[in-house]
Amino acid sequence: MFERFTDRARTVVRVAKDEADSLNHRTIGTEHLALALLQDEGGIGGTVLHACGIEYDAVRAAVAAGDDAAALRTIGIDLDAVRASVDQTFGPGALDRAEPAERGGFLFRRTKMPTRFNNSAKKSLELSLRIALSMKHNYIGTEHLLLGVLKEDRGNGGGLLRELGMTYDRTADLVLTALKNAA
């Protein structure tokens, strides 16, 4: 399938892997694809996201906090309330992570886990192909990746973009307009 990807779309997939690695996530999810699209300034996917007011830093912060916050919410813990309480008791920034000292030995050695796509990201890539074909395109570009992320309703990336006000239909309209303007 990647043979149909434009160079820009391939770069987005590589950047998504880098995003997952930098966040120490074991799999590449739709949230990492969304972050990578936001970094692609010249592509239609990134252009549409920026035109909708979606900002990389806000999405990155939500993705970084999302794993911990979601896990704690499932057991009834509000992470924001805990942070506020700790800041009030111990001072602002008390929970900021300090970088561990470099130490030798096998317990402290970090090994890179091979990063692969999670099921939602796989589905969004498949949907990107279907969307491209439905538009009568013989390639998959960043615009198709964006629409695939939004169409995959179980993915964190699409959910986050929807929380920020994006809808599939409105985004598809914006993509079509951008494609006409680029022609």
Helix content: 55-70%
Low-confidence stretches: 103-109
Radius of gyration: 19 Å
What is the name of the CATH superfamily of the domain at 2-54 and 116-182?
Answer: Clp, N-terminal domain
Mean pLDDT: 84
Distance between the termini: 25 Å
- The sequence of SSEs as H and E is HEHHHHEHHHH
Figure out the total of helices.
9
Structural class: mainly alpha
CATH level 3 topology of the domain at 2-54 and 116-182: Double Clp-N motif
Q: How are the strands ordered across the major sheet?
A: 1-2
Tell me how many strands there are. Answer: 2
Q: β content, as a range?
A: under 5%
CATH architecture of the domain at 2-54 and 116-182: Orthogonal Bundle
- Largest sheet features: 2 strands, parallel
3D shape: elongated
Q: What's the CATH class of the domain at 2-54 and 116-182, please?
A: Mainly Alpha
Give a written overview of the molecule.
Pfam families: Clp_N. Residues 2-181 form the Clp R domain. Keywords: Repeat. The chain has 183 residues and is an all-alpha fold. It has a domain at 2-54 and 116-182: Double Clp-N motif (Orthogonal Bundle), CATH 1.10.1780. It is 62% helix and 2% strand. It has a two-stranded parallel ribbon. The longest helix is centred in the middle third of the chain and has 18 residues, at 56-73. The protein is elongated.
